[in-house]
Amino acid sequence: MTSPADHLILRQRFAEIARSVVLAEVAAIEDYHWPQKSLQALADSGLLPLAIPKRFGGLGAGMTGMVIAGEELGRISPSASLCYCMHVVGSAVIAAKPSELQVEKYLLPIVQGRHLTTLALSEPGSGGHFYEPGSRLERAGDHYLVHGAKNFVTNGGQADSYVISTLSEQGEAAPGVFNCLMLDRDTSGMEWEGSWRGLGMRGNSSINLHLDGARVPLGNLLGEAGDQNWYVFEVVAPYFLIAMAATYLGLAQGALDLAMDHLKQRRYAHSGQSLAEDSIIQHRLGELWIAVQQARLLIFHAAERGDLGNPDALPFILSAKVAAAEVAVRTTNEALTFTGGSGYRDNSLLWARLRDARAADVMAPLTDVLKTWTGRALLGQPLLS
Ligand SMILES: Cc1cc2nc3c(=O)[nH]c(=O)nc-3n(C[C@H](O)[C@H](O)[C@H](O)COP(=O)(O)OP(=O)(O)OC[C@H]3O[C@@H](n4cnc5c(N)ncnc54)[C@H](O)[C@@H]3O)c2cc1C
Prior knowledge:
Order of helices and strands: HHHHHEEEEEEEHHHHHHH
Distance between the termini: 34 Å
CATH architecture of the largest domain: Up-down Bundle
Largest sheet: 4 strands, antiparallel
CATH topology of the largest domain: Butyryl-CoA Dehydrogenase, subunit A, domain 3
Shape: globular
Number of strands: 7
Structural class: alpha+beta
Strand content: 5-15%
Number of helices: 12
Bound molecules: flavin-adenine dinucleotide
């Protein structure tokens, strides 16, 4: 856990990198380049172990730290934010119950700023239902052989390791019951496919991975038999949800920043008035700002409850991503209206933000699924029916 004073310092560190290195890389990111310089700057600044507990040498900033990171990075580049946050999620999953070997092999290099990880759960077969993997593993001496496919892997081909999910060894598992294990870069039997050409989130490198008997050492299995549900619902899902909520919150705030700059600058020749002086615009901007702040408060509240291990954190965490997705789409839409023809005409940054925002609803867990899960959590019903 970190204190409010630590949070202020963290915010300054992320904001500084966002406004220098990330901003300078935005044009390349929008041209489908993975944010290599931004990630390197974050590594050089000692920010890779953000969510790794202090007992392993990390910053111990948890989910709250990740919201701060996502807000500041996402404000300038949602892609850079997502690439970084997916690393933070992956590192939090590794740090949840690491063996000595995993501390040595993964956590230490992350703490030293020389290892990037990420999460590769989604599969073509189960789509947005990431908790239903079809990938399977079989034991072969001192290794597992992993067979299957992952898709939309953010940081795909760029990270040093990948947290993947597979069905248990028997090949049959109830929903939510699977293994998490580490796949190292350049493992034999893994092959990347294609390049990322998404509508938005263009710097993500969210590409497809084929696993054809990928040889994974037994020691790469995370946790012990029977831990799988604990991993999914206590570590993977909360961190994953807050990572996305943080990024889309930053995105919404960034769109608001761009709109406000325009409203102050745009002045009519016939009246001499700026758009900022128009009472309808003032009213609509006020409404939009309130919506962003409501989402922001929910997201921070959810992250804080998650960090404290509060037993009723779940509905807050589930709904945090819903709130972020809805406010990101609304804010970018309305911000584009505020900027009128000029925002629409040019290949503007707001246009890019509008495209980025549309990923929020389609990235798992899906918005509709999360609303149902929130209701189930409130009613004490099992999340997976
Ligand atoms: C930019 C981006 C980055 C990503 N990064 C990662 C990553 O790093 N790691 C990773 O593991 N995955 C990642 N994903 C994958 C993502 O989380 C989803 O798995 C993927 O987008 C699902 O796509 P699909 O076409 O298979 O969706 P489908 O499952 O086919 O769903 C299509 C649509 O059907 C509707 N739908 C489906 N099921 C339901 C339901 N039960 N209730 C209501 N509506 C429903 C929804 O509207 C949904 O959008 C990423 C995706 C994107 C777009």
